[in-house]
Amino acid sequence: MAGESSSSSSNLNIIVHKNPSQSYLSELGIKSWPKWGCSPGKYQLKFDAQETCYLLRGKVKVYRKNSPEIISEFGAGDLVILPEGLSCTWDVSVAVDKHYKFESSSSSTS
Question: InterPro entries given for it (predicted)?
Answer without folding.
Answer: RmlC-like_jellyroll, RmlC_Cupin_sf, UGlyAH_Cupin_dom
